[in-house]
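Q: What does the assembly look like in three dimensions?
Context provided by user:
Components: two
Sequences:
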Amino acid sequence: MDINLVLLILMMISTLWTVMCRSLIKATIGLAVTSAILTAIMFRLNSALAAVFELSVCTGLITVVFVSTISLTKPLTHKEIEELSKARHKRFGYLPIVIALAAAAIYFLKIPNDFSDSSSMAIRSQGIPEDVCIVLWNFRKLDLFAQIMLIIAGSLGVATLFEERKIDEW
Amino acid sequence: MPSLLILIPLFGIILLNLPIRKISMRMAFWFAVFVFFAQILIAIFHYPVFWAQDARFIHFFHVGLAVDYLGVIMLLCIGIVSLASLLVGRYTIFDEKERFRFINLLMIAGIGMNGVVMVRDIFSMYVFLEVMAVATFVLIAFNKDIESLEGSFKYIVLSAVATVLMLTAIALFLFISAGTTFSAIRDGLAQYGKSRVIIFAVGLFICGIFIKGGFVPFHGWLPDAYTSAPSSISVLLAGIVAKVAGVYTLLRLVASVFGFDGRVKTVLLIIGALSVIIGALAALRQKNMKRMLAYSSISQMGYIVLGLGAGSGLGIVGAIFHIFNHAIFKSLLFVNAAAVERQVGTNNMNKMGGISSRMPVTGVTSLIGMLSTCGLPPFAGFWSKLIIVVALWQSADYVYAAIAVLASVITLAYFLSMQRRVFFGELAKGMDDLKEANFGISLSAIVLAFITTGVGILFPAVFTKLILPAKDIFIR
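A: Here is the predicted structure of the complete assembly.
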């Protein structure tokens, strides 16, 4: 089986899990996994720059922010979890069927799904090297330093604003 | 070598946060003092070696920054105001751990501001604006009470709106330019500047800047943020953050990238006049000292935009000079507010009275700050306001010149009201044991008062050597 197809199927499964999962923490992990698989797909499509940003921002920073926020919320009771679970399945139960039908349609109707050539051409046409290290270091080095500072500022923010509350709550 | 102004604090912060907390906590304050003080010295003495780009030993970290006269003035303001904020923070944040985090966040905000001032790329400018904004969100919410969280949340929401506007504009600029550097966008605008989409993009970006700067009618976040933040943060916010995020970016982009024409002039004059008048009128009605100063900031920032709106070299010079002066005297007034809040325990001006007799340093320095804000000679504020009014008159914007003069009278009215309620008259009940604020706060106030008086008295020298060369940033 083509590796791209495997990645797409895995991404669909993790996306479904993210949407349908009743636990917010598990949903956040599902989102991070989805982003990680999307990163792999972007690498395979020669969009290395987009892949790195997807990995650092969506898989890393956003997951940290979500987990920090969720850790401050009040845990649900068993009864509430059951009610929520039922409502969620009722609301999103049709999603796997829709996705399975869409996949079948793509497979049987032979819709083209390999865009690797056109994407790499777009990058070459702008005269930017494809090596992500070269791109980041030679073209956007300053933004990288700023990214590091944003992560430090975010971490200090979480440590400063959430610490006291955490002690009180737990 | 300007990159050292970003790299040294960055690596310093990383080292300070290594797991050697006890030593780090002691070192953090002095490291921050070193960073800001070195920045002030470098800016004052204009070391050519430092500003040269090709220093070999840091070639590895060469990141294409540049500093001109406007940049030097901004870096000087950032250094002075950050140092004042640091000193106030040291004596008003008592928990050692909290203070350590405050110092780290202050340095990150400083790095963000330095970055905004030194970059020559519109996307990098946006990224550094975000660095500054994220550090500021946390600093505003530092007290973790309902008011500070609300103030921070308002700032986050409006800042996010500004971010979307700016990013959309940058995306639209990419249709006409080969990259995101200032020169590339300027070239693109020279060729396709009459396109409606591009005019729309310029409008979006300027709207984003107006929100970040807190100009009327985009000022919703500013009074709450300034009032609810801890005093040391209010000094930073009012003194320099809004100026870098709003005024400097506006000045740099309008004067050097977007260019200046009739439409831009009209927008700037209207926004400037609205900010001057509405800020001053709103300040008249306040009973909270910090809130009054916040509205006063909006009004004074309006003067800077009016100067820019005059569209002449003299107007630009006046605007730049008022940025410097306002950074100093507004920081001074917020340091005074910090001293009063710490000693009296409230910001409600109706509950105070006669404080000057018990806090003479705060009383005298606040009087100097007030006189400079109102534009009275010989203080620094007088000269910059005079230049702005003359520039407006010369460009035949007589109504706006009249508005600028009239608003000065309103400024005098609300500051006299503040002085009467807080510092003069009979000592309020229960304040017999009131004492002067501690050494750090008093020292900050004295130094800032000294600067605003000194710049006013030595106006010809300061103006010729530091301010006047900055007019060259202007393109038509």
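Follow-up: Chain B has one domain: 4-474.
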